[in-house]
Each structure stands twice: as C-alpha cells, then as structure tokens.
Amino acid sequence: MLEFNLEEGMPIVDVALRRLTAIIHREKALGTKAIKIIHGYGSSGTGGRIRTESRKYLSSCQRRGLIRDFIPGEELSIFSDKTRNALAFCPDLSKDRDLERHNNGITVILL
C-alpha cells in the first residue's frame, strides 16, 4: 500500500486538498487498490485542519463514487467491519504498521 504525506512542506489546507485530489486520480488510474495518507492530527492533538478537511473531502468523494471508502486511522482495527472489508479488498493492508495503532494522524483510502 502506498503512503503519501499531505503535511510535507507544511501546506495550507487548499494546497493539501489539491495534492490529495491529484493522488486519488493518479493512483486510481494506475489501478492502485488502497493508499494511506498522512495528514497529522494537529499540533494540539485535538484538531488539525488538513485532517478534518481531508475527511470531509473524502466523504464527498465517496458519495460521488470517486472512492470506494475510507477508514480514519483511529478506526483501523480488525474489530471494525470497515477494516475487515478493506482487508478482503486489499490484503496488503494487513502489513501496515498503523493497523491496530489507532493513529488519528492517518487515513486509509480504498480506491
């Protein structure tokens, strides 16, 4: 599974979302099944505009059929139906270091 750091270079939210859009379109065209984005969780540990706006954007992408689903890092657990479905779709996810770490600074996207 490929990993992309949306925080790299400390972009503003709009730039990070444009980067995310380009990543989704490129990787989907390449036939990639799943990607992981690193968006951080905010310097206070309670927020992070890139995280919140990325997840809003991913919800919109899912409603429009651009992506299959997404899993917030804090829900990336074998006890989650979403994660079990994702593991069936993309077995490589089972090797990801963030599985079972409840890392709210990442999100897994199923393309």
Broad CATH class: Alpha Beta
Based on helices, strands and strand pairing, what is the structural class?
Answer: alpha+beta
Between the first and last Cα atoms, what is the distance in angstroms?
11 Å
Portion of residues within helices: 25-40%
Q: Tally the helices.
A: 3
Give the C-alpha Rg. 13 Å
Question: Secondary-structure element order, as H and E?
Answer: EHEHEHE
Total DSSP E strands: 4
- Please indicate the count of domains: 1
Largest sheet composition: 4 strands, mixed
As for the CATH topology, it is Ribosomal Protein S8, Chain: A, domain 1
Task: Kindly report the average pLDDT value.
Answer: 94
> Strands across the major sheet, in which order?
1-2-4-3
Shape: globular
Q: List segments where confidence is low: pLDDT < 50 over at least 5 consecutive residues.
A: none
Strand content: 15-25%
Notes on the structure:
The structure is a single chain. 37% of the residues lie in helices and 16% in strands. By secondary structure, it is α+β, with helices and mostly antiparallel strands. It has a 4-stranded mixed beta sheet with strand order 1-2-4-3, sandwiched between helices. The longest helix has 17 residues, at 13-29. The termini are close together.
